[in-house]
């Protein structure tokens, strides 16, 4: 509560600080009635032609036409984005941009209305939560030099989920219900009221169903309350409170090679495996429109999350291609055996909060019309990681496992790590407008202090000096972009920026066993230099295209192999992104619109630049989980009576899964390649003209193709055919 009080006080300071400017503005225009500040919660500028980098916006109309099952399907329409169907509903979200490992989206910054979404943005950037599409108005993707305004993950790209605003004209809302195969069902209700003085809106949703593998059922619930208060024409206060809860039987352990060959959809310990996740969040924002040219926005946020996972298989396929019960040595993992054995609980607590004032203003201080941004963010995290293990079946209960707090040895309290993060971020950017040109230099400075204290490791207490370390890192991250708009409806852009991913403290711990053996290593953050050159155009009526050449050079990339992280040295990714849409209805000026859309990525280079003999890496080896080709294409038809139908295909080419580029599968299923695959999808929407009711039907993996998506912790099968239908009533 003291932190919430601090956030509220900081926001209140936003009213006091600019009081003189407010009075001056009021005197300058007596009797003039200004409109309330229009809140869009967007991270992109209103004039896209001046954005000096590759961007994409998936708006509400596109989301309704596609009717994606999860955010993964929606993002496949963006060039350069690779998503992985490890689970059916995106509960452990895997998104990679431009050849970066998609595992838990750890190198792609996820935001909701500008607020970070990870478990811990610096200390544990894992995406076990993303904004439900029911609340999303549009999705914004930024991959270019404009990333210097945001952080900390800037080596790949940034995705911002913009939620629906509070109603402005009375009572508005909607109710929707969805059902599908694999026992999927869900509902969403939204109601709000608003007017000149602001408004309030409540969102409620619940989704449940079966996962990719048998027994992997899930149940998620969320409640969100959003409000806006227009204090006067210059001051607007926004607030949002959210509560999310997940209870699923999804395990993060895959199958051994023999198990997968016998039945790729089995999950031997699914009935006991659990993943429980609760997330409470508060987001506040004060907008002070000082005058037409100056705006001060102060954002504050607070997130409290707990996740606890239970697994009975730690390493798959160790018994001749079949998995072993982790706490019952020599016992093959089966549903019957899982009932009579314990396992490992991993409860983890995360708290983070931050405050960020940002000043946007127009000026001509350099004799050139300019838009400038100056901002600062203070951010803190407190992470507590625990692990309990035991062979007794009663360890399937978290409360029983936690009764072994501080009990030493193989049965009891295996791990306890306290991580505290303090981060200060400073950024500035200026866009100069010179004729048809816009030049945008920017800089970001990250000052980070990560304190890691290994209090317990391998079942033993730790108090040696090496088990406690403070890692201080300071990095200057410049960027520069240029855009040319000399041709109508067309922007040619180029940019370069330094990318940054802070050191992950959970990767820095080595505890060979016994008391006082834990060592916390002081690692460096990942850094990259990101280049791009591209063009986007709507020169021809009904035709929109974008093409981008990109190159990313890593100074020191971190590679994952079967849950283990190691330094892979220098690397390089380079490729071509193509995206576009053609609306023949606009071209031929008819209300009957046939449209084509496509997004293609050719990652022609994704390689290590140096040998790492200890890991079997040879210069020139391809990076793991970096497919050379990604393609998403669709054809659709829109009828003026409110009918919209589309059919599409998504293609992913072959991938390596380790730095050594192993092609022969091992019994554990963690080595070998991932073959290429193509999936077909379709959707139909109907909203009669003038009606408040809409009907929709969507299907993914129409041909029910069998395909492999990951070998992290064993083999993971892709999702079966998923069909769902729904109805929505808006008022």
UniProtKB/TrEMBL annotation:
Ranges where the record places region Disordered? 504-523
> Can the keyword Cytoplasm be found in this entry's annotation?
no
Report the record's Gene Ontology biological process terms. siderophore-iron import into cell
The record ties this protein, via PROSITE patterns, to: TONB_DEPENDENT_REC_2 (PS01156), TONB_DEPENDENT_REC_3 (PS52016)
Q: Where is the signal peptide?
A: 1-23
Concerning InterPro entries, the annotation shows: Beta-barrel_TonB, Beta-barrel_TonB_sf, Plug_dom, Plug_dom_sf, TonB-dep_rcpt-like, TonB_rcpt_CS
Q: Where in the cell is it found?
A: Cell outer membrane
The membrane-topology field of this record reads: Multi-pass membrane protein
- Please give the chief subcellular localization of this protein: membrane
Which Pfam family is an annotated match for this chain, by its short name? Plug
Q: Which UniProt keywords apply?
A: Cell outer membrane, Membrane, Receptor, Signal, TonB box, Transmembrane, Transmembrane beta strand, Transport
- All copies of the TonB-dependent receptor-like beta-barrel domain together span 259-702
**Cellular compartments per GO CC:** cell outer membrane
Q: Which residues form the TonB-dependent receptor plug domain?
A: 49-157
Q: Which SUPFAM superfamilies match?
A: Porins
Residue ranges annotated as motif TonB C-terminal box? 714-731
Q: Which domain of life is it from?
A: Bacteria
Protein's UniProt keywords contain Transport: yes
| Family statement drawn from the similarity comment of this UniProt entry | Belongs to the TonB-dependent receptor family.
Which protein are we looking at? TonB-dependent receptor
Q: What organism, scientifically named, is this protein from?
A: Methyloversatilis universalis (strain ATCC BAA-1314 / DSM 25237 / JCM 13912 / CCUG 52030 / FAM5)
Q: What is the lineage of its organism?
A: Bacteria, Pseudomonadati, Pseudomonadota, Betaproteobacteria, Nitrosomonadales
């Amino acid at each position: 509560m003291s932190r919430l009080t601090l956030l509220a006080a900081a926001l209140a300071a936003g009213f006091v600080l600019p009081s003189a400017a407010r009075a001056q503005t009021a005197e300058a225009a007596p009797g003039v009635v200004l409109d309330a500040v229009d809140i869009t919660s967007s991270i992109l500028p209103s004039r896209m032609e001046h954005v000096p980098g590759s961007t994409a916006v998936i708006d509400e109309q596109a989301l309704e036409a596609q009717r994606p099952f999860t955010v993964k399907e929606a993002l496949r329409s963006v060039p350069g984005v690779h998503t992985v169907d490890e689970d059916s509903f995106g509960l452990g979200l895997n998104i990679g941009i431009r050849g970066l490992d998609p595992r838990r989206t750890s190198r792609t910054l996820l935001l909701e209305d500008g607020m970070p979404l990870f478990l811990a943005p610096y200390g544990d950037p894992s995406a076990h939560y993303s904004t439900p599409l029911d609340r999303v108005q549009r999705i914004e993707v930024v991959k270019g030099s404009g990333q210097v305004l945001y952080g900390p993950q800037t080596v790949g790209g940034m995705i911002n989920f913009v939620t629906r605003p509070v109603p402005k004209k009375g009572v508005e809302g909607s109710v929707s219900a969805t059902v599908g195969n694999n026992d999927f069902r869900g509902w969403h209700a939204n109601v709000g009221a608003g007017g000149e003085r602001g408004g309030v809106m409540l969102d409620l949703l619940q989704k449940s169903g079966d996962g990719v593998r048998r027994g992997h059922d899930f149940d998620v619930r969320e409640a969100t309350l959003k409000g806006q208060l227009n204090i006067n024409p210059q001051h607007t206060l926004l607030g949002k409170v959210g509560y999310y809860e997940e209870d699923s039987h999804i395990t993060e352990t895959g199958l051994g090679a023999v198990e997968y060959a016998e039945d790729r959809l089995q999950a031997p310990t699914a009935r006991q495996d659990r993943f429980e996740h609760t997330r409470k969040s508060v987001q506040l924002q004060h907008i002070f429109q000082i005058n037409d040219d100056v705006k001060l926005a102060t954002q504050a946020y607070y997130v409290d999350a707990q996740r606890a996972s239970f697994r009975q298989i730690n390493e798959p396929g160790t018994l001749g291609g079949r998995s072993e019960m982790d706490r019952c040595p020599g016992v093959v993992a089966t549903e019957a055996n899982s009932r009579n054995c314990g396992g490992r609980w991993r409860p983890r607590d995360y708290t983070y909060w931050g405050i960020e004032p940002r000043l946007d203003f127009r000026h001509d201080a350099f004799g050139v019309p300019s838009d400038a941004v100056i901002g600062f963010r203070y951010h803190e995290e407190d992470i507590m990681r625990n692990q309990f293990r035991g062979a007794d079946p009663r360890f399937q209960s978290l409360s029983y496992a936690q009764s072994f707090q501080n009990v030493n040895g193989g049965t009891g309290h295996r791990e306890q790590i306290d991580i505290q993060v303090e981060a200060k971020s400073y950024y500035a950017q200026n866009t100069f407008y010179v004729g048809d040109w816009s030049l945008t230099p920017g800089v970001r400075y990250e000052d980070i202090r990560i304190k890691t204290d290994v209090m317990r490791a391998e079942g033993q207490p730790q108090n040696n000096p090496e088990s406690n370390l403070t890692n201080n890192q300071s990095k200057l991250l410049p960027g520069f972009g240029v855009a040319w708009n000399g041709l109508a409806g067309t922007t040619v852009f180029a940019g370069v920026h330094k990318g940054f991913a802070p050191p992950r403290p959970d990767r820095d711990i080595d505890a060979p066993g016994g008391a006082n053996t834990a060592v916390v290593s002081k690692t460096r953050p990942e850094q990259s230099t990101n280049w791009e050159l591209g063009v986007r155009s709507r020169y021809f009526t009904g035709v929109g295209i974008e093409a981008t050449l990109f190159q990313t050079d890593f100074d020191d990339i971190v590679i994952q192999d079967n849950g283990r992280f190691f330094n892979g040295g220098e690397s390089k990714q380079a490729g071509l992104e193509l995206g576009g849409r053609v609306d023949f209805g606009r071209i031929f000026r008819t209300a009957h619109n046939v449209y084509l859309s496509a997004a293609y990525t050719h990652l022609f280079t994704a390689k290590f630049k140096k040998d790492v003999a200890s890991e079997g890496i040879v210069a020139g080896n391809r990076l793991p989980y970096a497919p050379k080709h990604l393609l998403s294409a669709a054809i659709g038809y829109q009828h003026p009576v409110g009918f919209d139908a589309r059919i599409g295909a998504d293609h992913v080419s072959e991938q390596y899964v380790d730095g050594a580029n192993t092609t022969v599968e091992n019994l554990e299923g963690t080595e070998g390649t991932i073959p290429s695959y193509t999936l077909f999808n379709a959707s139909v929407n109907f909203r009669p003209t003038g009606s408040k009711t809409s009907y929709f039907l969507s299907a993914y993996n129409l041909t029910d193709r069998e395909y492999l998506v990951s070998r992290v912790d064993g083999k993971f099968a892709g999702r079966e055919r998923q069909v769902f239908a729904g109805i929505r009533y808006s008022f």
